[in-house]
């Protein structure tokens, strides 16, 4: 007779690899279905907190709006990641990728990314405002959009000389010319 496990088996990162910052993209790709959403930061797995209902609603509305308004050659995506390097990945709220996109991939290389969008939540405020922009810039992603909640406000950055420079911000509407021309009604999407 064999013993049956008591209760569900809960996934956790390998403690030795966590201590030694030894996780790689291969570990992330091999995560079981029951694993939480994670980002890989210099070999350490970080559990990404679940976004609020407001955050998720704005993510969905933005991605849906972009799906209807971005020109041919671009494709918006949600809940997919960017491989920064062998020991670092990020999962932005919305990405705009250069087409064509392999629909079976969960992670994309920085050169496939035209725009990365982070919606700032209380649990991710420091990373979204200060850490992630530097990581995305170092990876060469040309455009970074940060959306603040309460009230909703869009900050648009372009990569200039390996760092992001603010090119537009508004709580109402933003007219963009790069990477394509679009009039983004941020107030309408955030209401």
UniProtKB/TrEMBL annotation:
GO terms for molecular function: endonuclease activity. Coiled coil: none annotated. CDD domains: DUF820-like. Pfam families: Uma2. Keywords: Endonuclease, Hydrolase, Nuclease. Residues 26-180 form the Putative restriction endonuclease domain. This is Uma2 family endonuclease. It comes from Actinoplanes subglobosus.
